[in-house]
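Before anything else, study the sequence and fold tokens given here and see whether the fold suits the sequence. Record follows:
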Amino acid sequence: MLGYILRRLLQVIPVFFGATLLIYFLVFAMPGDPVLALFGDKTPNPAVIEQLREQYHLNDPFIVQYWYYITGVLQGDLGNTYSGRSVSSVLAATLPVTGRLAVMAIGIEFVLAILIGTLSALRKGKLFDNVSLVVALVAIAIPIFVLAFLAQYFLAIQLGWFKPTVGADNDWGGLWLPAIVLGFSLYAVSMRLMRSSVLDTLNQDWVRTAYSKGLSRGRVLPVHVLRNSLIPVITNSATNFGVLLVGATVTEGIFNVPGVGNTLFEAIRRGEGPTVVSFVTVFVILYVLVNLLIDLLYGLLDPRIRYA
């Protein structure tokens, strides 16, 4: 197991360099001048523009700019934004907000998928199963921005259950509405995976053997059925969690969440290469580590994987 973990960690190295090089090149190739974008409609002093371009190495060739950036990252310096703020401080301010939102959304998705998916499988072909499949199709079909506006209007404005926007109130309690929107939009695929997995597991030999030994349904379902049916749902949820960590840009924008999505969007719009690449670098590492943890969790859920 230790060797497997080390191999997976070593895989981060080529992914790290490949992702940073590619993203930095894409930002470098974007049209426009990021220094001029700092001043908006104002006309800055040419000397100030030249000073900023020299400060951020914007007059250097692409490979030289990338070299300055990557050497700084390897020394623990993610660089500065063009407004003078360190990227590390920006990440420290925004990543916890997006992290809380992602954890809450995945928690909602996971609970709904397990409960509804399992009940649908146990009631296959009945009213609950048919209704749950229709609701899942609707959840998949509705664009996230439509779902966000509907939740904002009915749950926040009409019913007053939540605040319509987040803003500075971005603790756990203030993120419930965008988390519900994201969780509901994601649960449909996981629910259908859970339903299919439970139906497949119910027909396995070890389940029939457990029943033939006289074990009750309350013992067979959680120990023999649910445990072996969770792997597809965990895989899908882990992928969704990695995507949410990168930032649910549309949802964060609608609910004014001061998280990674909003910050990254603004950095791309201004052409801030160090900010964009540093964010992506951190997300690549987090995504690989999350998937490593999920792979280790497979062994706990399915002994066949652990023995293999």
Observations:
- The longest helix spans residues 87-122.
- DSSP finds 15 helices and no strands in the chain.
- Residues 193 and 232 are 6 Å apart (CA to CA).
- The two ends are 10 Å apart (CA to CA).
